[in-house]
Amino acid sequence: MTLLSVIIPFGLSKERLYIQDRIFEKIEDFKDLKEIEFIFVEGYSSLKNNLKEKIIQNNYIYLKDDSQINFFSQGKCRNLGASFASSSVIMFLDVDCYLSKESFLKILNLIKIKNISLNLNALLVLPVVYLTQEASNSLKKQDQSLWDSLIQNDLISGKNTYVKFFAPSSTSSIVINKHTFLKLGGNDERFIGHSYEDFDLFARILKSCIEFEKMPSNLNYDSRNWNFYNFEGFRSWFSLLGYEACFYGIYMYHFWHIEPNQNGYMDRRHRNHKLFYKNLKNMQTHSLKPLQVFQAKNEKVLILFKDKNYDFKDVSIYIGEIIYKNINDFIDKELKYELLLDFLQQEKITKVFLDANIEYKMTNIKHLDVFYFQKGILPDSWYFYKDLQKHYEKREWDRKLSNEEKLQIYNYLLTLSHNDKKNIKQTIEKLNIDMEKDLLNFVFYLKNKLYSFTYRNDFFQIILDKERYLIAEKNDKSFYCLHSFIYKPYLFELKNIQLFSFVYKILGLSYLKAKISQTKFYRLLRKWLFNFNYKKKGVL
């Protein structure tokens, strides 16, 4: 299995013919990167093309999102690609962006160092240098092995011969654990066309995965571009992890292109902005339903419970969309199978998960997969199974453990409380298992082969009827302290008392500033000022 899956969305039109050329360039550039799976996802294209054949011929994966009719959605393409990715770590790369082979190799090393395949809260986000039109043309005449050094020297020196502007965080090019992306619901597909779907996703990722010692003031403020200097607003929040990649020497480059409004791609820009601001304001409660891996798409699962409802959203990634129902809804003194069967047919249910504490068994539902679930005997464990007795048979767990495996279980048992150990002992005795002889083998089997586990109500290991779907590690949020280099651009501000900012907040002016920043007038004003300054410098 590859270490990383890179998802590249695209759509073709006669107004943007350059996109096809950039796909061809990527097909050639990626040939030596054997540790990476590349997935090209075509959304809506108003121009017929033969890119599918070209992509497949070069041993890349091609997907087509047929749900995009008369509109193009980067977010939907990214979601589709993530659901098909075979790697446990995914990354998104826009067709207009270039990343050198050396940067890809650094990313692969950081995936290993940060353990992103097992740490559900670890991630990277890439900074992006936007190139001028002249630079986008002249750079291709240079030796490609020099591109990184040429652009980075131009950026760091401040000459800006190549650089139009620099965004410390691309927000769309994120390296993240696939399970985490799917669990958070991926890109919100209500964002149609251009703008802010990546901001919405990145805000949810940071809230879920990262803890910063210091957060920016006035998070709802939008500077409207990346030409800011204060530790204020959501863009400065987004910039922190981008600066991390800068210190690793990883930069992405965005090649210039015309921006026609083909197929109404820009029409919903303002509405997208308003939707993002609304979600940002409600960040503590804003969430999406999880996405499913492609094997579970179009699957619908009924979770039947009695006395207590459950939250198996993490599990739904691998089994399908979940509907929760109380078994009492189908009981009138006794279980009414006809009523239950009508519900299953009406909702097009394909699997049933039944609380094992319910005395009724689904023997009359032979056309569906029926699983049972209950709390395991180990702390924070869940047991999902079809046949309880079969899994506890000695032949399932009786094997010789290596010294490393024995040490793992010894150390695990040392972490358990007195009550936890007592519970294990009672269960083992009930199953007629020799406590002295077989304890290590049996606990190893439960921990590694049979049980699912949660940490703070989130699953980090999911095993269903002995089939492994997710094997990760128990981790807290990734924490960045003020000593981290990511705060370097803002240290002077953070170390000095900002009396003016405090008064600003007390008087309610921060709120007013945030509201003004979200208006269309403010966006146009900031855009005009940005272009004016660059024309003044002779860059544009």
Automatic annotation (TrEMBL):
SUPFAM superfamilies registered for this protein in UniProt: Nucleotide-diphospho-sugar transferases
Keyword tags: Transferase
Keyword 4Fe-4S belongs to the record: no
Any Pfam family matching the protein: Glyco_tranf_2_2
UniProt cross-references to InterPro entries, sorted A to Z: GlycosylTrfase-like_prok (IPR019290), Nucleotide-diphossugar_trans (IPR029044)
Any GO molecular function: transferase activity
Residue ranges of every copy of the Glycosyltransferase 2-like prokaryotic type domain listed in the record: 5-282
Domain of life of the source: Bacteria
Protein name per the record: Sugar transferase
